[in-house]
Amino acid sequence: MPQLLTSSLRRFTSPGGGRAWRAAAAATIALAGTACSVAGHSPAGAVAVRTDCAAVRIISARADGEDPGPGVIGSLAKLITGQLSASVTRQAVAYPAALNGWARSAAKGDRAVKADLTSAARRCPSQVFVLLGYSQGAEIVGDALGGGGGGALGPVTAGVPAPIARKVVAVIQMGDPRRMPGLIFDKGSAAGATGQYPRSQSVSLAGFAAKIRSYCDRGDPICAGGHDLAAHFGLTGKYNRSASRFVLGRLRAAGIS
After folding, report:
1. What is the mean pLDDT of residues 71-85?
2. What's residue 158's pLDDT?
């Protein structure tokens, strides 16, 4: 990770800055919860049955530094689930989500997402997938689809095979460190921004553009090269409803509502 970003984030993760980190994360969760309370009600009469071979599997990849589980991006998974009548399984990616040793952590996450997709596709051949990721989690869901690694991130790896990739109907990335400027799926106020680890052509997501929405705001140190951590922490509260509308539209196009 570049020195400027590393030192900036270390202020929040160091013993003296832990309270600031937790306060910022708590504010993010509170904002996300507000969005869910406003827009997360189930349709009248809808009953979403959670089974392993549900119609939809939502896989959430938490941000670096978050505790194991779905993390803040799980608020979006909950919002989407609450608006579906179809059955849904929600799953969190098990990976380190480590700030220190970023490349190793992301590589493990990339492998974990691919393993989750491959296993689910084998067990539940008619199931479709929605991938959600925040910060390092946004990186690994993109890597699983388009390929990972390269440069400071280590050896280039391939994305999942095409038959599995076709089952992925929607991908939401928030604060993606591999953001590239000028792509049609880039959303948020950071128009033209480049992330800390921009994708090369060999691991481009351009071929999956119709499936993706990637949110980034000006000043975000992860996806826009800025210095404003609040911009990075505030994405779910600001964009959950827009993201959920996109995902629900993609699922409706696949015959799922």
Report:
1. 98
2. 98
Running DSSP on this structure, what letter comes out for residue 155?
Answer: S
Residue 51: per-residue pLDDT: 57
Q: Residue 204: is its pLDDT beyond 60?
A: yes
User: From residue 32, how far is each of 4, 18, 128 by CA, in Å?
Assistant: 28, 21, 25
**In this structure, is residue 21 part of a structural domain?**
no
Tokens at residue 72, please?
A: 């803040």
Do the domain assignments include residue 74?
Answer: yes
Here the CATH number for the domain that contains residue 213 is 3.40.50.1820
Is residue 6, in this structure, part of any structural domain at all? no
**Confidence band of 25 (pLDDT split at 50, 70, 90):** very low
Q: Does residue 16 belong to any structural domain of this protein?
A: no
Catalytic site positions: 135, 220, 232
75 Cβ contact partners less than 8 Å away, ≥ 6 residues apart: 29, 32, 33, 35, 36, 236, 240
